[in-house]
UniProtKB/TrEMBL annotation:
Stored Gene3D superfamilies: membrane protein fhac: a member of the omp85/tpsb transporter family (2.40.160.50)
Keywords in alphabetical order: Membrane, Signal
Signal peptide: 1-23
Annotated ranges, domain Bacterial surface antigen (D15): 216-402
Coiled coil spans: none
Compartments, record wording: Membrane
Main location: membrane
Protein's name in the database: Bacterial surface antigen (D15) domain-containing protein
GO terms under cellular component: outer membrane
InterPro entries (alphabetical): Bac_surfAg_D15
Length: 428
């Protein structure tokens, strides 16, 4: 077996944890489907276990181990696991399985993940400190234990590219053959039962918050998605539409709540620019979310509690995907809006394959990016309010595909601070 899978896992593992810490994203997903010219799917089958090390402000010097199995029991399925411990006492573990098909002709793909972490002396933005008019100095330095457990059950509708074979939803490249779901792309609905918790320990008194005081939530996230992109790693045309509804039915000691999120991305191929750029792409994302029952209440154990989630379960701005010059979870309130625009170019000049260290890897392309983000949160759902006094970020990035993993290095500037980050996956 080639040592290239070992290198790919090392790259993915080294930055997985910054992704999980700073944003409530989808974690690492391993897609290995390749659509052959004859229309058949082929799958990469590899495994690797590697040690890794890195340094961040949250971890200090950190070391850990990661492993991946591509083709785990089934050709299209994968399992990823990793653990890390830092010199500042922060530790984290993550385990994920994806794309298990319960039957040969089934349109269901099953999976799940489990994440646990203990953060030592981390800045948290709570209560008024997470509002749109807050200051970076309002942060509370505290220690907390985080946990997240989810199951995934995704149903692929017999539409578009997946009319005959649901596994075409896992192909990394697909032609865009229309502008409606029944003509093109992959339409799916995914059900994600979840448990989230955050418990502070050894911390100073925490500020009052309009969010629920619960330290755990149980619920169901339902995501309806239409993926009409021509390439998962480097889309040049098409769109991605997602509607997500999250419901916590409540319990004897916490109120029920629900929220919705809408994310829409578009991509336009601007063509080459002479002998300078082989590819130019304009990419745009718009995001909107709300907790409709925010000002409604119910009686729980004799107390009147609002239908609101705790802060750690609420959609937020800041981190690796929205308002990138701000810390993850920097802004949180009842409603949120965000816009991002990116100009992505692929230079004709690609020297990475000949550089030291890079020449150990398969690096088929690199990409230069300039981007701008704008967004805000508010304590009411009002589009006029949400589009006023918005926070902003702007920056540049270099991204490249390494052994099938997209790595991005970004520098973002904003009103409060500037942030440099290295991570995996495109932001949208």
């Amino acid at each position: 077996m080639s040592d290239k899978p070992f290198r790919a896992v090392a790259i993915a593992a080294a930055w997985l944890f910054s992704v999980v810490v700073q944003a409530n994203d989808d974690g690492i997903k391993i897609n290995t489907g390749h659509l052959e010219e004859n229309g058949e799917l082929s799958w990469a089958r590899d495994y690797a276990v590697v040690p890794f090390a890195f340094y961040t402000d949250n971890f200090g010097f950190a070391a850990g181990m990661a492993g991946v199995v591509k083709g785990a029991w089934q050709p299209q399925a994968s399992v990823f696991g990793a653990g890390v411990m830092g010199t500042k006492g922060t530790w984290m573990t993550y385990l994920r399985g994806d794309n298990f098909q319960p039957g040969a002709d089934s349109r269901w793909l099953l999976g799940g993940d489990a994440y646990n972490a203990d953060f030592q002396d981390i800045d948290f933005y709570l209560g008024a400190a997470a509002g749109n008019n807050s200051s970076a100095d309002d942060a509370v330095t505290a220690s907390a234990y985080d946990a997240r457990y989810r199951l995934f059950a995704r149903y692929i509708f017999p539409l578009g590219s997946a009319t005959e074979n649901p596994l075409r939803s896992l192909a990394l490249e697909r032609p865009v053959t229309g502008h409606v779901p029944w003509q093109s792309g992959i339409t799916s609905v995914e059900f994600r039962p979840f448990y989230f918790s955050r418990r502070f320990h050894d911390s100073p008194p925490l500020p009052d918050s309009e969010f629920a005081p619960a330290d755990e939530v149980w619920g169901l996230e339902t995501r309806l998605e239409w993926d009409n992109l021509n390439n998962e790693h480097n889309p040049t045309k098409g769109s991605l539409s997602q509607l997500t509804v999250t419901v916590d039915p409540g319990s004897d000691d916490r109120a029920s709540w629900w929220q919705w999120e809408l994310s829409q991305s578009w991509f336009w191929d601007l063509g080459p620019a002479g002998e300078v750029f082989d590819q130019q792409v304009l990419a745009v994302n718009a995001y909107l979310s709300d907790v409709p029952g925010w000002n409604q209440s119910e009686s729980v154990n004799g107390n009147s509690l609002y239908h609101r989630p705790p802060e750690f379960a609420r959609a937020s701005l800041g981190g690796l995907f929205r308002l990138r010059s701000y810390q993850g979870g920097r802004f949180t309130d009842r409603s949120a809006i965000s816009y991002s625009v990116e100009y992505r170019v692929m230079p004709d000049w690609q020297p990475l394959g000949g550089w030291p260290v890079f020449n150990w890897y398969d690096v088929p392309w690199w990409q230069w990016v300039v981007f701008a983000d704008a967004g805000r949160v508010a304590d009411e759902f009002n589009l006029a309010t949400l589009n006023k006094a918005m926070r902003w970020s702007a920056g540049g990035a270099v991204r490249f595909q390494v052994e099938g993993v997209v790595v991005r290095a970004e520098m973002a500037w904003g009103e409060e601070d500037s942030r440099f980050a290295v991570m995996v996956n495109q932001p949208f």
